[in-house]
Automatic annotation (TrEMBL), chain A:
<dbReference type="InterPro" id="IPR042490">
    <property type="entry name" value="Thio_Ohase/BAAT_N"/>
</dbReference>
<dbReference type="GO" id="GO:0006631">
    <property type="term" value="P:fatty acid metabolic process"/>
</dbReference>
<dbReference type="GO" id="GO:0006637">
    <property type="term" value="P:acyl-CoA metabolic process"/>
</dbReference>
<dbReference type="Pfam" id="PF08840">
    <property type="entry name" value="BAAT_C"/>
</dbReference>
<feature type="active site" description="Charge relay system">
    <location>
        <position position="340"/>
    </location>
</feature>
<feature type="domain" description="Acyl-CoA thioester hydrolase/bile acid-CoA amino acid N-acetyltransferase">
    <location>
        <begin position="28"/>
        <end position="158"/>
    </location>
</feature>
<comment type="similarity">
    <text>Belongs to the C/M/P thioester hydrolase family.</text>
</comment>
<feature type="active site" description="Charge relay system">
    <location>
        <position position="375"/>
    </location>
</feature>
<feature type="domain" description="BAAT/Acyl-CoA thioester hydrolase C-terminal">
    <location>
        <begin position="220"/>
        <end position="431"/>
    </location>
</feature>
From TrEMBL, chain B:
<protein>
    <submittedName>
        <fullName>Peroxisomal succinyl-coenzyme A thioesterase-like</fullName>
    </submittedName>
</protein>
<dbReference type="InterPro" id="IPR042490">
    <property type="entry name" value="Thio_Ohase/BAAT_N"/>
</dbReference>
<feature type="active site" description="Charge relay system">
    <location>
        <position position="369"/>
    </location>
</feature>
<dbReference type="InterPro" id="IPR006862">
    <property type="entry name" value="Thio_Ohase/aa_AcTrfase"/>
</dbReference>
<dbReference type="InterPro" id="IPR016662">
    <property type="entry name" value="Acyl-CoA_thioEstase_long-chain"/>
</dbReference>
<dbReference type="GO" id="GO:0047617">
    <property type="term" value="F:fatty acyl-CoA hydrolase activity"/>
</dbReference>
<feature type="active site" description="Charge relay system">
    <location>
        <position position="242"/>
    </location>
</feature>
<comment type="similarity">
    <text>Belongs to the C/M/P thioester hydrolase family.</text>
</comment>
<dbReference type="InterPro" id="IPR014940">
    <property type="entry name" value="BAAT_C"/>
</dbReference>
Amino acid sequence: MIVTLRLSTMSPPTSPILSVQPTRGLVDEKLKVVVESLPPGSPVTLHSLHHSEDEDYWEAFGHYVSDFRGMVSVSEDLSFGGTYTGKEDMGLLWSMRPVPGSRKGLRLRKMNVCSPMLHNISVYSGHVSEGFREQTPLTSVLVERWYMAPGVKRIDIMEKGVRGTLFIPPGPGPFPGLLDMWGGGGGLIEYRSALLASHGYVSLAMDYFNSQELESADLEFKYFETAFNIIKEHPQVIPDRVGMFGLSLGSLVTMHVAAESTIVKPRCCICVSGSHFYPRDRTIKEVIMEPRSNSHRLRIDENNHHVWRDMWIHLLDDPSKKVDVGKINCPILLVNGKDDQNVPADECAEDIALLMNAAGNGHLLSRVLYPDTGHLIEPPYSPHFRASNFKAAGVATKTVMLLWGGQTKPHSDAQEDAWRKILSFLQHNLYSSTPPRAKL
Amino acid sequence: MDRKRCTLKLLVQPSRGLVDEMFIILVQKAPSGFQLTVHALHKCEDGHSWEAFGHYTADTIGTVNVSEDPSLGGTYSGVEQMGLLWSLRPVPGSKPGLRLRKMNVQIPMEVTISVYQGHQTEGFMDQVPLASVVVERWYMAPGVSRIPITEDRLSATLFLPPGPGPFPGLLDLWGGGGQLVEYRASLLASHGIASLALDYLTAKIIMETGKMVDLQYFEKAYKILEQHPQVHGSSIGMLGLSLGTSITLKMAVYSEVMKLRCAVCISGCHMQPVDGSVEEILKYFNQNADRTRISEENELIWRDVLLPVPSDLAFKVDMGRLKCPLLVVVGEDDQNWPASESAMDMKEMMEQAGNSHLLTVLSYPNAGHLIEPPYTPHARASLFRSMATREKMMALWGGETAAHSLAQEDAWRKLLVFLRENLYSGTNPGTPSLSHL
């Protein structure tokens, strides 16, 4: 006799339950992703999908196996394949890459910080590596990732020739302030300032390429001093607690102003992926043009990516071509990647240390150098790209594929670690009531 | 303390959460032993301001953790992690009889949490706090779709969870105040249940025809859910509060069309004319309107109108015929409906009929009538326009704030577990995770 077991067609579905906490969080907060009510020991794929402002699709995924209770916990279990492997609680974000068939050289950056980044987190049956769009997931949730905490105010600044956006934390204040500067790509990039304001710093994101004011080196210098003072004089800012934060070219500006300004006294400086090569009396625009005149030092690798790192190394031997870092008299944190292919960050950091030690202010310097990490050290969990399209701002050049460097997993670890160290450095120097003195 | 040199830090996590999620409020770097007031301020959609506050003393390292430290006074006392929300009350000088309800669920409630120096009880608006943050409380999770429903002349809104589905479904009914109230349905959709909020007292069809809806109105709503491609048709439940329970019980027991998987009745009764629809139920209530009492504060106590529980089976739902699990939630201090008495009678009827294994009664001492999703402020009385009498009056709902808020928190958690257990398959190996609630 054959006995057949029939499943009741009237029973409700045993659909797995996906929970992601928080569903609305800041971009630097961790996610807890848990799947329950799966069949025990079943292979599943956790997938994240993001549709960018540029209309591209980015995805990440990990291959998991549920336990005897039918549960998968991304922070505790291991991924056995996908865009990341191992125990990676945030792998679904940092390992994102453009979906197959996308345009080349993409970079993921949020331009409108008043709205969140949306990520669709889904569970697929089995270990899937492609064709996610053609399949229906078992379940999915939508997660919002914000650069702006509730209550942060965003104010357009067009004052004394300075163009930028000011972000002010909620509350009466007064707060410490930060002048936030990006690199040679130019434009008004707000997201890091919005995030810093969400951590309690009045931050001014600056556009320092498109202004008419930057015709001469003198005027340009005054531009940065004016911007700094706009923050310092704001009624909600503690005037002697204003620092500077730069990435790439922004680092250079930071070091130069900190060293040379008689008016502006930053309380502390953070320089990410910067060099200290500053041909004296030249403007930023001219510094950007430098690659053109040094084109024999430009390398183009086997993938047709432009590698700029060697273009200025010869300047290490010429003091007149470097920022006089011996004159910096505030704590300064350098954050660099050892695999930075855009700027010789490692060598520059070494040189800066030598110069500052010789000048007697070496105790102000802290450096962190991350292995296998590239040039674009961004806030944590943002995807890594070894190269991307780049067009220098305000310069009539064509778009090239610039090599930034870094390997995805170590670079992502560096971003997470660096951000924590940066926030701790800022907290110590801008919030603490003891006078700034110590290193990290 | 010199505000210019103040390094006090205030942190609320999460800064954006669902209304039924807990938050952690941490004050750090205050001077050791510092006395401070943590204050919450909310401006509701009607433009009224609501506030709550607790008095704390920082420990030796200058920290106050609202989830661990006791409030020494204010609008709540003791260790109350969510006291700043559930003890919200209209600021002094507000008009009486206010009730806090979110009508637009697509934008969050914004609450400003601040720290003031010292143990203060008034005049917060005239002072500058030491620190403050803004917290968003959402009735809708990201990805939940809000779909207005007007077909079949219904006035309803469907909330679908994110994802492919199919999802279990739920009909969500409020009480005698009418209107299309969406916030509980949107919150349930945020928990994975496709929920339909239904207006059955002030719906367009009623405004246009001048007549109350018949039972087919509710069956049409059920069919909308049942036939929806993203709803699992054999997994539909019904939830009612107050007058909504009357409809829920009638449909659960008598409807040939509705095959409910389970039902939830909050602060309601089974006493009603067995025949007839909304009109007949309201007439029945009006019959004994002279039994209403007035409290010392001039508030209307309505509960006696439905008492005593009749023995005539023409006037109470035949609970012995119920075939699905039923969760009954009652506040023992309900001054509006005799929910406790009704629950006892329902239990007796079901024990006699042999189906009492379907019944779960959650009875909360000192809780009132309006048992809402957790952390929403308690209103012991408020201005109410009854659709039965068409008059606006101050209705006494009952309940003592702290006990009522605890009841809301507990009832909601148990309600979600009940719905999950009954609307999803019963053979799940693991328990759904509700640990963040």
